[in-house]
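The authors assume throughout that readers already know how a fold can be written as discrete tokens. For illustration, here is how one protein appears when written out as sequence plus structure tokens.
>
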Amino acid sequence: MLTRHVILPLALALCMTPDASAQSPRPSTLAGRSPVYAPHGVIATSQPLASAAGLAVLQQGGNAVDAAVTAAAVLNLVEPHMTGIGGDMFAILWSTKERRLVGLNASGRAGSGMTREILLQRGYEAVPSDGAESITVPGALGGWAALLERYGTITLTQALEPAVQLAEEGFPVSPIIAGQWAQEVERLSKDEGARATFLVDGTRAPQAGEWFQNPDLARSLRAIAKQGPGTLYGGDLGQRIVDRVQALGGFLTLDDLKRQRAEWVEPISVPFRGYRLWELPPNNQGVAALEMLRILEQDDLAALGHNSAPYLHRLIEAKKLAFADLAHYVGDPSAMTMPVSRLLSDEHIAERRSQLDSARAAERVEPGPEASASETIYLTVADAEGNMVSLINSVYEHFGSAVVVPGTGFALQDRGAGFTLEPERPNTVAPGKKPLHTLIPGFVTRTTPDGEEPWMSFGVMGGAMQPQGHVQVLLNLLVFGMNPQQAADAARFRHYEGLRVGLEAPVPDSVRAALAALGHQVVELAPGSAGGAQLIIRRERGYVAGSDPRKDGAAVGY
């Protein structure tokens, strides 16, 4: 069992990161860290305490799955507005023993009472993102248990213990998380449980460096450790959740929780210049990243120049085309009429590419012919045996629905907001249906004469930023030769809708002017809107990793 003496000294040292606020108005780069090289194992997460907890597991003989679940549980505590057992989870794993990639979809479904008709009757034009009506079945805990049962070497009880210790004893809140937490005081104040759990004295968010405890979460995790995940999926904890959600007008039943199952799935992929990008199949948006990459594969991107106006224009327009298909065709796979194979086919990609105008930004893009904001954590781990885990866990918006069942210590997700109320779409809300998900863990293999070999586990959290971020980071590596830290540091764009596109501060004014001349409406990309990347690349011996400076986290190895 892990002890606080293993976790806390390293973690507290990692928290002492440079102040990112002391930047010029137009810095030349976001860089400030070196890539992390490690001979045996490495972990990269968005919060130093979670990285330290996962590293301790690796050092004590645990594998990448053990470390990933341990770190995810700690993130539930230290980054509560982003993640937790009240949310959903997806993972891609390279299993050295099986010599293959496996995928896990641990997303939940709409409650039995969640119908389009009742939401329209209540006066909604879209599924709300606040309150009990937005809550769907939380799948993350079942996903953690499934990963450990099939590929782990420690128990769920052992994996939860570091989070329990920190929840009971407290920890100093890190700076970026403190700033984001402070923006949610008004939302948290509206719910009794959220106010009592996440606001100091019921009135304010904790400040950077201020110690915070969550004894309710510690009790919930101890109950799970003692009774197993079944306490949430149909047991005492689940009954408390259902009673509270229904009292607030939500749609979950105990049977909905009992039916929840994590699903093992086959990842999907496309080739790119001797490598292969892997994503998970719908109900998530991974297919959009693959479609973007296929649209761009014939372009001489290196000749255009990194983050030049022509380069960014091509990527932005490719994003628009892929997302038009995503919105129209993708949702719960049982409701899709356009198969993923068709979306990624040569014929469909050729049609999509033909719509890309190199001289003008498209204001409105239609889906090809038929034949969302998110708050998330992403982490990745690699161990001495060569296992690599790409894991993403989220409650969707900041603090999810902003509903906390009193005494439980964790927020329930608002993933129902991922549905549409438009009729007869694959993603139209319906009872027992899975919403279109923003969560996409990524993985890259290298193509060799003997088949595919693992190369990189990576992800870029941040709602609709995720496919855009996956493609930008991957091109930084494969086209422009950056190391993983440089690839994470490099300035990004984020296309929103229509002609509106955000650019991070280091993108020069000359590029902004050139994009505006092409018809783009250029805005400054606000801090926190470019997502957060974590990357691990496998080398001939050992690993090299990077961690996004836009987050509080760190990559650490041994």
User: Anything to note?
Assistant: Residues 267-374+440-550 form a domain with the Serum Albumin; Chain A, Domain 1 fold (CATH 1.10.246.130). The chain has 20 helices and 19 strands. The radius of gyration is 22 Å. The chain has a mean pLDDT of 92.
